[in-house]
Design brief:
One of its GO terms (molecular function) is serine-type endopeptidase activity. The chain has 792 residues and is α/β, with parallel strands linked by helices. The chain has 26 helices and 31 strands. The longest helix has 51 residues.
Length: 792
C-alpha cells in the first residue's frame, strides 16, 4: 500500500485495549469484597425511593437484560434494610366452630405460631387422654348407673301403679313386638269394662309423657355430669394457655379458646366413641382442632425477602387442598396453604415478570391484592369451573408488601402500553446498566466481583493476568474498548470454565508435595484464553458450515485483484447465542436508460431486505442525485444484489458498500478486491457507525487468511467505530506486522479513494468535476449516454 493511505490506516495499538495488570490485585486472595451498587447508582436510587415511600402503588419494576445480576443486587440491597426492620407476625388458620366454611385467621408474634400450634396439639392429647381415662373409670360408670337406676325405679313405680289398677279390671300391661305398651285381658272369658279401659289408656298416655320427660331429665343429668367432669379436666389444662396467649388488643385467640372448650363439651360423645367423621385427623389431631401454621418467622430476623420462581395463582395467593372420601370432596382449615404474598407480607416479594405473565390469572390476582391491600385465599378451580364442590372462605388478612418485578425492557414497555393499571401499581422503574465505563475503578470492581465468584464456587486462585484477560473479554462482550460488560451469567461462565482449564492442564500434585517453581499454581491468562477458545469452538458449528463453502470455493469471495462493480461487503450472522462475521460479494450492473432511471434493489424486490436496508438504499439514491443531477440526467438503470445470499437482510450497514459499488459501475472504475468495507451513510455522504464491527473485521480477516495474507488486504470502517474495536490478538499481530490493515474513514469520499486509488471529487475553477476524478468519469459517461440517445 502507498503512503497516501497512511492517514486512514489505524495502528495496531488502536485495535484493542489491554488491561494494565500491574494496577490489579496480584491474585484473587487480595481482592476486596465487591460493592453492591457499583455502576448501578441510578437503579439503586430508584429502588431506595420506592422502599422509602409507603404509599400504595410504589412497587418496583427492575428493567434490564437477563443475566445482569439484578436479583442478586436487589436481594443484597433488601437484606441490608430488612435486617433492621420489625419481623412480621406469624399467621395460623384454625377451625371456625360457629361457621366451619369460614376458617379463622389468627396472628401471633413472630415465632409464636409454631409454639401455639404445639401447645394446642399437646393440649388435645392431654385432654383426650384424661377424658378417655375418666369415661372408662369406675366412678364415672357408677355415676351413670346411679342416674339410670334412679330413673328405672321411677319408671317401674309408675308402671307398677297403673298395672295394679289394670289387674282390678281383668287387664295387664304388656309390650308388643314393636315395644309399644298395650293392655291385654288376663282372662279372656271375663268381660272387659270399656269405661275402665278408656281411663287406663288416658292414664297410660300421661305416664308415657312422664317417661319422656324422665328420659330428658336423665340425658340432662348425664350432660350435666359430663360438663362437670369436663370442666374439672379442661380448666386446669386451658387456664395456662388462656393466660399465655391473652391479648387485650386482639381477643380472637381468647374467643377461639372459649369456642374450643365449648365444642369439646358439646361433642364429647363423638370424641369418646371415636366417630370416624368427627375424628378425621391430621398429624393425629382431629382436623377441627388442628392449628395450621401457614406462615412462621424466626423472631428478630427482620422483614422477610421472598423470591417465588413459580408464580402461579395458587403459589402467589395461597390455595386450599382437598381430599376425597367415599366419592365426596372434602376440605377444612387444616388444608389451607399460604402463598408467596403471605410469606412476604411485612417484607419484600421478588418475581420474574415473564414468569408471572406466563401463568393464567397470576397477574390479575397480584394486581387485585395490591390494589385492595388485602389477601384473600379463594379456590381458583371453583371460580373457573363453577363447580358445586364444598369450598372454604378463610378470613382475609391485611397486606403490606413491597413487590419488585424483574424483567427486560421490551416486556416493561409492553405492560406499560397494554395494561392500563400497571403504571398505577409500579410507579418506580429501576433501570439497570448492562455496561460500565472502563476505568481503573470499574476494573477493580470487576476484579472484586470475580473474587466473590471464586470464593462462592470454591475455585482455585486467579492471578492478575487472568483478571486482565477476563477484563479484555468483557470489553469484547460490550463491543466497546471503553466499556465493560456487566452480565454476571457470562462472567461466571468464563470464570468457571477458566478454572476447568486449570484443572485440566495443571501438573502439580494435590497435596502440594512437589516444590517445582515452574509448576503453575494459579489460573492465568492462558487458562482464560483456552476457555475462550473452547467456548468459541462449541458455538462455532454454524460458522463452520458457512466457512466450508468459502474454503471449497462454493461461496465466491475475492481477496486479490480489481473488479468493476464488485465489492466485498461485511455481514454479521446471529443465531441463538452464536454471532460471527462473513464477507459477502455485492455487485452492481449499470445500463443506460432514457429519462429518469431507477436503482433496483434486488433484495428488497424479492422481500429479502428489511425496512432499514430499504432506508439505506433510499438515502444512497438521494445522495447520488445530489452529486450528479446538476450536471446530467440520471439516465441509467442499476441493479444491486448480494450474490449467493438467500437469507433475510436488514440494517443499513451496507450503505457505504452499496454506494461505492454503484459509483464503481457508473465510472467503469475497478475496486480493489483486497479490501472489504462496512458502514452506514447519511444523505451528505458522512460515514456512520454500525454494529458488530469486530465480528465483521474478523470475518474478512479469516477469509483473507484462508486465501493467504499478502500485506495488501484490509477492511474499511467508519471512523466513529474506532472506539468499538476489540479485535483478537491474531488480527492485532497481523496488523502490527503489516500483513493486514484496518482503515477508518469519515465519508464515502475517503472510502472511495482507498478502494479505487484515485481522486474522487476534486473540482476545477468552473465547479465541474476534474476529468481524472471518479466523479468526473461518471459525469462524462452520463453525458455520453445522453448524447447517444439524442442521436437516435
Amino acid at each position: 500500500m502507498t503512503d497516501q493511505f497512511a492517514p486512514y490506516r489505524l495502528p495496531h495499538t488502536a485495535l484493542k485495549r489491554y488491561t494494565d495488570t500491574h494496577a490489579l490485585p496480584p491474585d484473587s486472595t487480595h481482592a476486596s469484597p465487591a460493592p453492591n451498587d457499583f455502576g448501578q447508582r441510578r437503579a439503586v436510587n430508584a429502588i431506595q425511593t420506592a422502599l422509602d415511600i409507603k404509599a400504595n402503588g410504589y412497587h418496583v419494576f427492575a428493567v434490564g437484560e437477563n443475566g445482569l445480576g439484578k436479583r442478586t443486587l436487589i436481594t443484597r440491597l433488601l437484606a441490608e434494610r430488612a435486617k433492621h426492620e420489625p419481623t412480621p407476625p406469624d399467621l395460623v388458620y384454625v377451625h371456625n366452630f360457629d361457621a366451619p366454611r369460614h376458617p379463622i385467621a389468627l396472628t401471633l408474634p413472630s415465632g409464636q405460631g409454631a409454639i401455639f400450634a404445639k401447645d394446642m396439639h399437646k393440649l388435645w392429647h392431654e385432654l383426650y387422654k384424661k377424658i378417655i381415662a375418666k369415661f372408662n373409670s369406675i366412678s364415672y360408670q357408677n355415676s351413670i348407673t346411679t342416674i339410670k337406676q334412679s330413673a328405672q325405679k321411677q319408671e317401674r313405680n309408675l308402671l307398677d301403679e297403673i298395672n295394679a289398677t289394670a289387674k282390678s279390671h281383668n287387664l295387664t300391661l304388656l309390650h308388643s313386638a314393636d315395644q309399644k305398651a298395650v293392655f291385654t285381658p288376663i282372662d279372656d272369658k271375663k268381660p272387659i269394662n270399656n269405661t275402665a279401659l278408656d281411663k287406663l289408656q288416658k292414664k297410660l298416655t300421661k305416664i308415657n309423657i312422664e317417661l319422656d320427660n324422665l328420659d330428658d331429665e336423665i340425658n340432662q343429668k348425664i350432660d350435666e355430669l359430663h360438663e362437670t367432669l369436663l370442666i374439672k379436666i379442661i380448666k386446669p389444662l386451658f387456664n395456662p394457655i388462656i393466660k399465655k396467649y391473652d391479648n387485650k388488643h386482639d381477643k380472637k385467640i381468647s374467643q377461639y379458646l372459649i369456642d374450643y372448650q365449648k365444642d369439646i363439651i358439646e361433642n364429647i360423645l363423638f370424641i369418646v366413641e371415636h366417630d370416624e367423621d368427627f375424628m378425621v385427623k391430621t398429624a393425629n389431631i382431629p382436623n377441627r382442632y388442628y392449628v395450621n401454621v401457614a406462615v412462621s418467622h424466626t423472631p428478630n430476623s427482620g422483614s422477610p425477602i421472598v423470591f417465588e420462581d413459580m408464580p402461579t395463582h395458587p403459589n402467589l395467593l395461597g390455595h386450599i387442598e382437598y381430599i376425597t372420601q367415599l366419592g365426596t370432596i372434602l376440605t377444612d382449615a387444616s388444608m389451607i396453604r399460604a402463598g408467596a404474598l403471605h410469606k412476604a407480607n411485612g417484607g419484600y416479594l421478588l418475581l420474574e415478570a415473564s414468569s408471572l405473565l406466563e401463568h393464567p390469572y397470576a397477574w390479575q390476582g397480584l394486581k387485585r391484592a395490591l390494589q385492595s391491600k388485602s389477601l384473600s385465599i379463594s379456590s381458583l378451580e371453583q371460580m373457573l369451573t363453577l363447580t358445586g364442590s364444598v369450598s372454604l372462605s378463610p378470613d382475609s388478612t391485611p397486606l403490606s408488601v413491597k413487590v419488585i418485578l424483574l424483567g427486560e425492557p421490551d416486556l416493561y414497555y409492553e405492560l406499560l402500553e397494554f395494561e392500563p393499571e400497571f403504571n398505577n401499581l409500579f410507579k418506580i422503574r429501576a433501570d439497570f446498566n448492562d455496561t460500565l465505563p472502563r476505568n481503573h475503578d470499574s476494573e477493580l470492581f470487576i476484579t472484586h466481583k470475580i473474587a466473590d465468584m471464586i470464593k462462592k464456587q470454591a475455585l482455585p486462585i486467579f492471578d492478575s493476568t487472568a483478571f486482565g484477560a477476563i477484563l479484555d473479554e468483557l470489553s469484547v462482550y460490550a463491543d466497546d474498548k471503553d466499556k465493560l460488560d456487566l452480565h454476571s451469567d457470562r462472567l461466571l461462565q468464563l470464570v468457571v470454565e477458566s478454572a476447568r482449564q486449570f484443572y485440566l492442564n495443571h501438573s502439580y500434585d494435590i497435596d502440594n508435595k512437589n516444590n517445582d517453581k515452574n509448576i503453575v499454581k494459579t489460573v492465568n491468562k492462558t487458562h482464560v484464553q483456552n476457555a475462550l477458545d473452547d467456548i468459541k469452538e462449541r458455538k462455532g458449528y454454524l460458522k463452520e458450515l458457512y466457512w466450508q463453502e468459502i474454503q471449497n470455493g462454493q461461496q465466491l469471495i475475492n481477496t486479490t485483484g480489481k473488479v468493476v462493480g464488485q465489492i466485498n461487503a461485511l455481514t454479521v450472522i446471529a443465531y441463538a447465542d452464536s454471532e460471527f462475521g462473513l464477507p459477502a460479494r455485492l455487485t452492481a450492473l449499470i445500463a443506460p436508460k432514457f429519462g429518469t432511471g431507477e436503482i433496483l434493489d434486488i433484495e428488497r424486490d424479492v422481500e429479502l431486505g428489511g425496512s432499514l436496508h430499504a432506508k439505506g438504499m433510499l438515502i444512497m439514491t438521494s445522495f447520488l442525485r445530489s452529486l450528479f443531477s446538476q450536471f446530467a440526467e440520471l439516465n441509467f438503470s442499476a441493479s444491486l444484489a448480494f450474490e449467493q445470499s438467500y437469507a433475510h437482510i436488514d440494517g443499513d450497514s451496507a450503505t457505504l458498500a452499496e454506494c461505492a459499488v454503484l459509483l464503481s459501475a457508473l465510472a467503469n472504475v475497478p475496486i480493489n478486491q483486497s479490501l472489504a468495507i462496512t458502514g452506514s451513510m447519511n444523505q451528505l455522504g458522512d460515514a456512520q457507525a454500525i454494529g458488530g464491527v469486530n465480528e465483521k473485521i474478523i470475518g474478512f480477516f479469516d477469509a483473507c487468511a484462508e486465501h493467504g495474507l499478502n500485506g495488501e488486504q484490509g477492511v474499511i470502517i467508519p471512523k466513529t467505530n474506532i472506539g468499538q474495536l476489540m479485535l483478537p490478538d491474531n488480527v492485532v499481530r497481523a496488523v502490527e506486522r503489516g500483513e493486514f490493515h484496518v482503515y477508518a474513514v469519515s465519508s464515502i469520499y475517503e472510502a472511495l479513494f482507498i478502494l479505487t486509488d484515485m481522486p474522487i471529487h476534486d473540482k476545477n475553477k468552473k465547479g465541474d468535476y476534474k476529468k481524472d476524478t471518479l466523479f468526473g468519469k461518471i459525469v462524462r459517461r452520463l453525458i455520453q449516454w445522453e448524447d447517444d440517445e439524442k442521436e437516435k
